[in-house]
Design goal:
Layout (H helix, E strand, L loop, with lengths): L2 H15 L1 E3 L12 H5 L15 H14 L5 E4 L5 E4 L1 H11 L10 H12 L3 E2 H8 L7 H13 L3 E7 L6 E6 H4 L1 H7 L4 H12 L4 H11 L1
Antiparallel strand pairs: 1-3, 2-3, 4-6, 5-6
Length: 218
């Protein structure tokens, strides 16, 4: 299967399912993942050496390409893991969680980080740390704690990677800037209507929906 065909299959799966992890959690069926959609009968192994399954690394590369395509939306969302959304579900989640409607109260440090993204997006992990003065191991937990609500409530999205350190660094952008049209669309939907539509698309027992419900009640 060519990369072009795989890319199309990945996008189709995300749009059909609404929300997918990149890789399965401990090879469990739920929550659904791109891996299980493309390779439903193949157990995923994390070995990245010459003996490993090259499809694991290939999917990580394609994840990066999709994240900057703007055809679908990418974020560190479900339990902090790499998650893709269809634009429809993403808009509904923004409305349901209240992110675009001023119903989420952020801690000072999280708001400071968001303000930086709103001023300049995208920024890599390295750059946002430099801009906020959060470099070094002593600030790592502060950085992670401050960023978590921005991912959880989808204030920011991932949009590719940049080589600005020893490893590729995730590029991040304020959703309000990077997907302005989706942000504005979500402001026209009530949380109640968003919940009804998410229930219809994902289902009450869907683990992504349950995660969103937990966040909405927090």
């Amino acid at each position: 299967m060519s990369s072009k065909v795989k890319r199309r299959k990945m996008i189709d799966a995300i749009e059909r399912r609404g929300c997918l992890l990149v890789y399965p959690l401990e090879n469990r069926k739920e929550p659904a993942s791109l891996w299980s959609e493309l390779y439903p009968r193949t157990k995923m192994r994390w070995e990245w050496d010459q003996e490993g399954d090259n499809r694991v690394a290939e999917m990580w590369v394609m994840r990066e390409e999709l994240s900057r395509s703007q055809e679908v939306v990418y974020a560190k969302w479900f339990r902090g893991r790499a998650t893709f959304f269809s634009k429809e579900v993403f808009v509904l989640l923004l409305a349901y969680l209240g992110s675009s409607q001023g119903r989420v109260s952020l801690a000072k440090s999280s708001q400071e980080a968001l303000d930086s993204f709103l001023l300049d997006s995208p920024q890599s992990t390295k750059i946002i740390k430099e801009n906020l003065g959060w470099q070094g191991k002593m600030m790592e937990s502060h950085y992670n704690r401050s960023m978590k609500p921005l991912w959880n409530y989808l204030f920011i999205v991932g949009c590719g990677e940049v080589d600005d350190s020893s490893f590729p660094s995730l590029n991040m952008a304020a959703t309000q800037n990077y997907f302005e049209n989706l942000w504005l669309q979500s402001q026209e939907i009530t949380p109640e209507d968003a919940e009804k539509k998410l229930l219809r698309i994902l289902g009450e027992d869907n683990l992504f929906f349950k995660y969103a419900k937990k966040l909405a009640k927090a």
